[in-house]
Design goal:
The protein is α/β, with parallel strands linked by helices. 58% of the residues lie in helices and 9% in strands. It has helices spanning 2-13, 18-25, 45-54, 56-65, 80-94, 97-112, 137-148, 167-181, 192-204, 208-216, 233-248, 269-275, 288-302, 308-317, 322-339, 343-348, 365-375, 380-383, 390-407, 411-417, 423-439, 441-455, and strands at 29-34, 37-42, 72-77, 157-160, 187-191, 220-224, 252-257, 280-282.
Length: 456
Amino acid sequence: MFDIWKNVLAEIEQKISPANFSTWFQDTSILSAENGNIVIGVKNSFYVKQLRTRYYDLIKEAFISHQIPVSSLDFEVKTKVKSKIRAKEITKSSSPTTDRVEHIKVIKTPRLTPSKPSNGLNAKYTMDNFVIGSNNDLAVSAAKSIIDSPGSRFNPFFLYGGPGLGKTHLIQAIGNDLSHRYTDYKILYTPISDFYSEFVDYVRTGRGKEFSQKYQSLDCLIIDDFQFIVGKEKSQEEFFNIFNNLYQRGKQIIVTSDRLPSQIKTVDERLASRLTWAGAFDLQLPKFEDKCAILRAKAELAGADIEPEAIEYIAENVNTNIRDLEGEFSTILLMSEVRGLTPLELIRNGSVSVSHTSKLRPTSPKQIVDKVAKYYNLSTKELCSKSRVANVKNARQVAMYILSKELNLSTNKIAPEVGVKDHTTVMHGIKKIEQDLKLNFTLRDQIAEIKEKIYG
């Protein structure tokens, strides 16, 4: 059956992008296939939903093309018990008792090998408990490629995005998987602020050369919060030299920041260019479905019983980041335990109120339009005019975007609020801002400041 699934995967791989194949099919297997009733094993409930909705027909067709009858096709989360049983079954059929013991050892090694205390990694951050969604699937695909072949395709790996979106989790998960897979691999995770402090200490005590040697001896360097290198010219120069040395020797470099290197003031242009040689991957705010998947996975890991309606309520009302989403979730679970009520009962009786909803909703669309106009030094009349001057047009599109995201207004309702007749113009304006936000951190900051003024 393993060979059949291998052939099916080979066919699927030809029909979808490498990124999607790596993300959704890499850790799958066949759990059972009796009488045409095929069950595919996946690692969490989010994968179950995605494979059912996005790839059901493709998988079924691949089986049929290999003359495998399909009466039904389903997906299940692979449990540890199933994994152990499967490992024993495979071993029994292929090797004597002594080999079976060896085989089980190999399977257990990754889970039993602790992270080295000196590498700065936190063992709780793993790829298994990182929930994949539409907001991060490309970055995760690149991360898996790094784990399979460090120092090659995605080197350096530059990851950026706002706070609380999972950057630290993902890069430490890469480090932990590398340390388990390559036991002699020298890995170091460090925030850039610690890199700076350590560099200063070494230089102050006349050991600057030792500092360089320490970092240049690594197989993988993971730098977090690179944006804080601003104003630290000597540290930046030292990092530049270390970067060049590691890169030339094919060593893996991983860097995170809240913005692109070119948008960080005082960063040397040569360094900014090098950091994005292999591209830049951003983590975006999760959509509603992504937030639900994150909360379901968190409940599963915690062994918590929480109603779907409660999960949807939290996902709907937390519009800031994943950190706040998980914080609200943990608070509700704790209150549920203390008060002896289910999470949904707490929500329905008003015992809890999710607070990360960009504060209180504004009273009217006019309030938003007025605040946006004032922020860009325009009158409301100017913003709502037919002017095509760049700064007026930009302010109008920002107003469209905020009206859509904060009040959930339809494009037809937004149009008259900003002096536009055609709702397709509103659709274009919202889409334009959404695209710009992916790379334009100045715009992100502006919209954040406008929201503060609206809700302040």
